[in-house]
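It would be a great kindness if you could assist me with a short task in structural biology. The matter concerns a single protein, recorded as an amino acid sequence and a row of backbone structure tokens. The record follows directly beneath this note:
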Amino acid sequence: MTLKPLVMPKNVEIDKEVTNDTFGRFILSPLERGFGVTLANSLRRMLLSSIQGAAITRARIGDILQEFSSIPGIYEDVSQIILNLKNVRVKLLSDEPSNLYLKVKAKKEYLAENIEKNPNVIIANPEQKILTVTDTKVNLTIEMCVETGRGYVPAEMMKHAEVPVGTIFLDAMFSPVLSVNFDIKNTRVGTRTDYDHLILDVKTDGTITPVEAVVEASGLLKHHLSFYTALGVEPHFASKEQLDAEHRRIREILKRSIDELEISVRASNCLKDKNIKTIGELVKKSSKELLSYENFGRKSLKELEKNLAKVGLHLEMNVDKYLKEDI
């Protein structure tokens, strides 16, 4: 069975005035009523929970054995340093975990940009503060491990035995998408004004662009939904050309005389007595109204409905949408 097509947008519009490497605004319109919320909620969940990213998952700070410690000559305690490391946004270019090193020995404030360069890791926020040295006698190295993952993974789930003593695990926020918001407004298509106009705002940490994030999230949704479409044959939606042709066919039939219907002379004369001359005037009537006419009985009604069905018509039709071109 061929399905009537839904109202569909031609493409996604990107608001170039506000879109950059960390913020994107995507406009999808027009959509059938309710589709805006459906698409926006699904994309929002995927964007916030399922986009792959990277994070610092564990660290060793000199000879410190656990995070509830302080380090002589450093202003921040270990807990604060760990919190600062969690806020370093990284992009991993390899498929394997990679290590980063920060050598601390000078009296100054250390930022993420002071971490030794690694060709496999890009730091998206080099201005992120890590610690402040207040004593020139300080000399230690912070070793960090960068891994890929999805969503939020607490430190307890990251722990495993194959690590050196003194390793501190971090709560890992792998998701490179920081926030997703959407707004749905009404838009007009023809005479209807209740179609959806979806505006989707996506903010990332800079390790992935909003466009890349939306494409990946859409791909994940499409892949998962494909398991349901595989249950049977995908529905075939009629093209605009097919609908236009059907529209023209019905319009031509509606303009024809009722004499072209294969109904009895008695029924035809009865209809003409009620000033019903065209098929278009006829199909607007209800069966109850036709049966109220003198000399128009149930046999005539059954005969009429059968002949209307042959050409794809029925009683109580709204013919205005077919005949309005001639108004």
